[in-house]
């Protein structure tokens, strides 16, 4: 993949945005309050998604879409799953580990194509 560092930063921003949304959704404020919409977690999610989007534009410009999209989506899935386990205490059973393994090997196969 061309410009892998940009792709990695985009994936990290995307995963960070998803974690920020999780924290924003768990906040005690009701969703119809202004405090919810101005939550630092929600604003961070918006900023991270925006940055991820801009970086993905560059990645897609210099890589085949059929490779860049699944590789980045798979990496985001892996990172979010691991972050959910490490940071949020979500379960990580054998089925999830098997799925992560399949995705990892799929990414390796795609990246070599």
Features:
113 residues; mainly alpha; 5 helices; 81% helix; flat
What does this molecule look like?
- By secondary structure, this protein is mainly α.
- The protein contains five helices and no strands.
- It is flat and about 50 Å long.
- It starts with a helix and ends with a helix.
Specify the helix fraction band.
over 70%
What would the average pLDDT be, to the nearest integer? 91
Radius of gyration: 16 Å
Sheet with the most strands, sense and barrel status: none
Give the uncertain stretches in residue-range form: none
Number of strands: 0
What oligomeric assembly is this protein in? single chain
Q: Note the beta-strand portion.
A: under 5%
How many helical elements? 5
Overall SS class: mainly alpha
Shape: flat
